[in-house]
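agent> fetching stored inputs for the glutathione docking request
agent> found them:
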Amino acid sequence: MSKKTVELFYDVVSPYTWFAFEVLLRYQNRWNINLKLRPFFLGGLNAGTGNKPPIMVPAKAKYMPIDVLRLGKYFDVPVKNPKDPVALLFTKGTLIPQRFLTAIDMTCPQFLGNVSRELWMRAWNRDEDITEPASLTQAAKLAGLSEKQIAEILPRINSNDVKERLKQTTQEALDLGAFGSPTIVAHVDGKKEWVFGSDRFPILADLLGEKWEGPLPGVSSKL
Ligand SMILES: N[C@@H](CCC(=O)N[C@@H](CS)C(=O)NCC(=O)O)C(=O)O
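agent> prediction call returned; pasting tokens
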């Protein structure tokens, strides 16, 4: 049977998306799928839909840090809450890191997963910046890129082709009807079926005709 394509539309601003990203990487060789990582810009998606980040609702802003830590434990992802989420989400935002990921995707896609993880580690584990050139350089180095590759890729953040590609990917998500991150698309029988959230894996597995074995497939219960 030919592999079914699964696309992850993601922005490293989102801790919930980190969970979905790690789970999909764990399952990409267990399920008969071809996983495509699709960096998009959640700020642009929100502008297009009129949706607002959950943190803008005070009750959700209070609940989310607790939820995120519980989920980090459940998914076995080393997430920690940043001291100043407003800086990460709004003041600095993630246009620059998402452009950087887009540039990586366009030049050396084999590193896209590792660089994405390093950016999540910076923002959502070590509470470090992800917008300055030195921060992006550091993340790319840890992900295995050479200094020469990084020197070539960094300036591309400001190039029109990278900006356009990120816009196009965000528009593709808008055209699907997406309103948040993670958005996961399964290509099944010539149709695109999509789900929102790292809590929809049982549904995704069902759509794909695969088995959901929990967040750590192949690992017997830690209890
Ligand atoms: N229930 C989802 C929540 C994911 C979520 O809240 N994502 C945020 C970004 S961190 C978002 O895009 N939210 C849009 C919305 O809730 O409408 C999960 O567990 O993954």
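agent> quick read of the result: The longest strand covers residues 4-10.
agent> awaiting further instructions
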